[in-house]
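Tutorial sheet, problem 5. The two components below are modelled jointly, 438 residues in total.
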Amino acid sequence: MDYAPSPRTTPTRNPARVSYDRTTAHAVLDEAVVCHVGFVVDGRPVVLPQLHARVDDTLYLHGSTGARALLAARDDGLDVCVTVTLVDGLVLARSAFHHSVNYRSVVVHGTAHVVTDPAEKSAALDALVDAVVPGRAAGTRAPDRRELAATTVLRLPLTEVSVKVRSGPPSDDAADLDGPHWAGVLPLTTVPGAPVPAPDLAPGIGVPDHVTGWGRSGS
Amino acid sequence: MDYAPSPRTTPTRNPARVSYDRTTAHAVLDEAVVCHVGFVVDGRPVVLPQLHARVDDTLYLHGSTGARALLAARDDGLDVCVTVTLVDGLVLARSAFHHSVNYRSVVVHGTAHVVTDPAEKSAALDALVDAVVPGRAAGTRAPDRRELAATTVLRLPLTEVSVKVRSGPPSDDAADLDGPHWAGVLPLTTVPGAPVPAPDLAPGIGVPDHVTGWGRSGS
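Model answer (structure tokens):
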């Protein structure tokens, strides 16, 4: 089922590129390693990169968004806009004007709250580790009570959500098609390199499958 | 010369990771294909992905940030926070708690104004095309008067700027070093694929060097 449009998720430009498709939104949120969290401090915008994890229709944010914002979130919650963007390619038109980028982005508006329930917090932290490397949470030493207390996790319901996608070739004006300029798309992909073991890794511990398999299905 | 710290570019967490180094800030801004622009609408945050180009100590933003924001910028300017983040690797510690990401990010605070001078606007649009693919602006049909009028460019001075960098291996607690878990870094890189010519590309137009050479020196 699609997300319901709201005034602030209704586009003023390129409406054909916008949808409210839940499956696409989830896929983009899941593939992105970082999100950008916007909030308002003293009437002015602040945007910080952050790790996130989606569990069903909830987005969890790792709470290192600065002490002031977190304090605000402890009371009435924190109004946030969370945006993720995956760049799929550079769109090179004959005309400078029609240059673009192929991308998939998701914008989430809502009010984030600090997760206080210990079970939810523990599950959210597992999800945050697994969002970076699927399967990783089971391959680590789980957080102890002190570490859980030292970590803040924010919960943001996925209700006001929009997706924007641009794909395909450049859209040049007909008059430019006979011009001398090359046009097309340069695809971009994020690829993992060879894993770099920690300098203090004990001998005999091999690279686990969840590391070597990263990126083969989702992020 | 470094940028001068301000209250809102002074970190509340991990101060050792933050700097005001101009050269690093410029390199991160130049390498990133998209930025995330935050602004305030009706007291609430909005964050949208955007193309940007740096010219010396000015950041130009391609003005498709929505009509309301642009209208606001036409008068007193628009308070924005522009953030770019490059993800260099996934930091996999023995403990879930010490998981992290290697990244380079830049946060710019300031007031953006619409560029009205035609010469500055034309140069900024060239810079925006060259920011996506260096050398590309000279390999395209330049904007005509109608296209220039249809495009909005915002100018943001680079004065309130901070850089945050995390690099290197995971930082596990001493007590975890003898544990059974693999630890290390999975490097991530953005790589170009083979250029995809536009379906309507005239025969005999080869892929230019500025396309095949993308990413070999900066973005």
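Marking note: Chain B touches chain A through 98 residues (CB under 8 Å). Full credit if you identified this.
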